[in-house]
Every structure is written in structure tokens, then in C-alpha cells.
Design goal:
The structure is a homodimer of 197-residue chains. With 197 residues, chain A is α+β, with helices and mostly antiparallel strands. Chain A contains 10 helices and 4 strands.
Chain lengths: 197, 197
């Protein structure tokens, strides 16, 4: 079993969210989707903005790198007009859905909204449109996202991310073993496949 | 043609330095070895130490990640007792040798000294032992490294790195196109092979 840690503001989480399901299935690895917030983790390290905004040289590189990555993986990509977008509400919806079948298509739809359609994913109506049609009661999903249980659950999950040593997204954990970045997904999946065997 | 930018203090430059020659040859790509200094670049971004020391969470991850990477690539690895080591003199020797046949084996020997044998690569006698036996006059190589021409040449090369948008090591450039990290070596080599064709 592999836990996939993602943050909706994270550009590098997008290509992984689009492909991790397929790659895990090919190796017979079960995935748990783990939304968390980077804001509180960056704040612990004295950063109050994305590292890609704080260091514009690194930022310029990241935008070009993403373009190339998405081209290689044949994923659509558009640099969003605002960055980073506030992913708090989206993360709460994802947390409320994380044990349901709907999680993968919701997460993918939010990334596409942000990084392909350049929509403001902090808006409830944008997130509503990202909910998969098979959800029986989409209004309830948004209500659940605003409940105290969800708010607190996401906070606890972010604390767990810190305890596991996470400092960026996407990340993967297999037990206590941490992997950072899409470039380590194969290594993480291999470990997860071995651990399951 | 691909320019391979490395810094002797950089842990992630080590596995690349050990394998880039072979990988480039397999694709018929010519490599230029480009030592540079990260210190002045980090200083421009307000950092006066390695980012892995400034953010210990990221640092702890890096040490584990390096262990795993080297295991996967069957490279020896030992966490050095001091980090980062001062690579200024080593970079000057490498600059003086960068257009010679000796460059690859010198660079590899310095990385092995630092990250396998835990030797202080700021010491002239350690670097002397890293010079390949085919060098006619090894004493002259160290003298060249201390010349004003070399000191200035390395400074200019580091300025060029900044102009190309470098912010870390290892990096690769193919013309103006920048790639950061060993995980982008294949992409960079592919572009270089296409550009040559």
C-alpha cells in the first residue's frame, strides 16, 4: 500500500495525480489518496509563499520544466494566471471523499480546472463541477467538506504529514519510508509492491 | 553537445558524475564538464549555507534519498562527516582541466574522496591524489589551479551559470535550455542528441 500525498496548489502534483492510478494498478499496488496542506509546513520553515515565488529563478525553471514534463507525458497544460491558488476548500472536499471511489476523478478534475482550464479552484461552484456524476448527493459532499469533523481531520492529516517528514508535494510514503517528487514514484511503487508480496 | 554543471559540495552531483559519460556516449552526445560554485548563487537568494542544512527536514530526506539512489545505481556511498565541504580549490583544479581528457577521472575521484572515503576535499594533498596518473605534470596542474587566469575563469563560468538560470546542481544545459537534477539527465541527453542530428 502506497500513500499519495498531494496539495492542490502544487504544480508537480498534477502530472502524478493524472497517472498514479494507472501505474499503481500495473504493479498491483493499492493507493490511498492523502490531501494535505503545504502552507503550515512551509510556515514552519519560515516561508509564507510558494518557494517558486520566493525564488523567481527556481520559479521560472519550474514553469518550463512542467511544460516539458506534460509534453512528454501527453498531458494538457496551461500556466495558470494566478499561483498558488488557495486549495483549502478543495483539500477539505478531497479529505471528505478520500476513502470513496470518487476520490481519483474528483482530484484529477480539480487539477485540470487549475492547470488546464485556469479556473479559480477556491470557488465552491468550480469544485461542485469537479464532483463526479456518480456521486449520489453532490451538495452533501460540499456540506461534508465544511463540517468540523472534516476540518479537523485534514488538520490531523497535515500533522501526520509533518511527522512523516514531508516538506513538499507530491510525496509518497510506504510505511515510514518517504519519497519526494514524481521522479521517485517508480521507486516508491516498487517498494510497495515488494512489501505487499 | 550537453554542458554538465556540477559543484563538488553537491551530493546529487556525485551519482551523475559517475554515470554521465557512459550515458552520453551511448547516445553519441558530446559532454562539456562545467565546474561552478553554488555559494555565490545561494548567497544571491539569501542563503549562506546548503539548503539541506538550512532546512533539516529536507536535509534528512536528502541523506536517505542519496543512500537509496546509490544502492539502485550500485554506487558506493558514505554520508560524509562534514557537509558541505569547501570545494573551491577542487573547482579551480577542475576548471583548469575542463578541456582536457583528464577531467572525467579527476572529477569522479574527488566525488569518491568526499562521498565514499570521507576525505577533506579542500586539502591540496587530497586533490593531488585525485589527479589521474596519465597527467604528465600533476604539480603543474595544482599550480595552474591557483593562477589568476583560473580563478577568474571559474568566476566568469559561475556568472555564466547564473545567466543561464542555474540555481542548483547538478544541472545540464543544451544551448539555452536548462535541466535541473539527475532526474532530467535523460531528457537533456535526448534534446542534445536531437540537436546534433
Amino acid at each position: 500500500m502506497l500513500e499519495f500525498w498531494f496539495e492542490f496548489a502544487s504544480t508537480y502534483s498534477y502530472p502524478v495525480a493524472m497517472t498514479v492510478g494507472e501505474q499503481a494498478e500495473a504493479l498491483g499496488v493499492e493507493i490511498r489518496w492523502r490531501p494535505f496542506l503545504l502552507g503550515p509546513i512551509f510556515a514552519d520553515h519560515g516561508m509564507n509563499d510558494s518557494p517558486f515565488n520566493l525564488n523567481p529563478t527556481k520559479g521560472a525553471y519550474m514553469w518550463r520544466d512542467l511544460e516539458r514534463l506534460c509534453e512528454d507525458e501527453q498531458l494538457r497544460w496551461r500556466k495558470p494566471s494566478a499561483f498558488p491558488r488557495n486549495g483549502l476548500l478543495a483539500a477539505r472536499v478531497a479529505y471528505a471523499l478520500q476513502e470513496s471511489e470518487a476520490i481519483e476523478s474528483f482530484v484529477q478534475a480539480v487539477y485540470v480546472a487549475n492547470f488546464v482550464d485556469d479556473l479559480d479552484i477556491s470557488m465552491p461552484d468550480v469544485l461542485f463541477d469537479c464532483l463526479p456524476p456518480e456521486l449520489e448527493d453532490p451538495e452533501l459532499a460540499l456540506e461534508d467538506a465544511m463540517s468540523d469533523a472534516t476540518k479537523n481531520g485534514l488538520r490531523v492529516q497535515t500533522e501526520r504529514a509533518k511527522t512523516l517528514g514531508l516538506f513538499g508535494a507530491p510525496s509518497f510514503t510506504v510505511g515510514e519510508e518517504l519519497f519526494w517528487g514524481g521522479d521517485r514514484l517508480k521507486q516508491a511503487l516498487t517498494l510497495a509492491a515488494e512489501s505487499a508480496g
